Amino acid sequence: MTLPQMIEIPAAGETRYLFILAHGVGANKENLEPLGHALHAAFPHACALVVDGFEPFDGGFGGRQWFSLAGITEETRPQRVAAALPAFLTLVETLKQRYGVDAAHTVLVGFSQGTIMSLEAIKAKDGLAGQVLGFSGRYASLPEQAPQKTSIHLLHGENDGVIPVSHARAAHERLVSLGASVTLDTEKGTDHEITPLLLEMAVQRLAESLAS
Question: Where does the signal peptide begin and end (predicted)?
Answer without folding.
Answer: none
